[in-house]
Structure prediction request, 174 residues.
Amino acid sequence: MPFEGFDFSNFWEDDDYARKSYIEEPPTTELIAKVEGELGYELPESYIWLMKQHNGGVPVNTCYPTNMATSWAEDHIAITGIMGIGYNKSYSLCGDLGSQFMIDEWGYPNIGVAICDCPSAGHDMIFLDYRECGPQGEPKVVHIDQEGDYEITILADNFEDFIRGLVHDDVFEY
Prediction:
């Protein structure tokens, strides 16, 4: 089972913004299949599991440490929220600011699925990267920097490792 031993009791920041822009009803099997068909990728089991518990939102811990500098910081990236499975919220996978919008309108490389937006308002994004594993495989999680010629930085080997690696922004000095 995904996320064994992980405590989600203080994971989400369920404020008005999160409810308005991210959080959808838990996805049904039919909705998951429809979204996967539209995106052309099988979503990771750990992502689906998490979305069935809380379908999109803003986590309390929004930073992910990196070993190299990104456009955001010398030692980490930051996310604004995690896109849920659905169509109804702006920041859902198939919402008006979802994955395909970021590829079509912002020119992000078509390597997978945009799953997290960043505080840069579209100038960098977090994607599930299916280049190595194919559309049915277990994708890596990457940071793509639109301002840096769409430079791709690998963050985690899988979605669960990415979620487990998120830390609070007070860990970093600004």
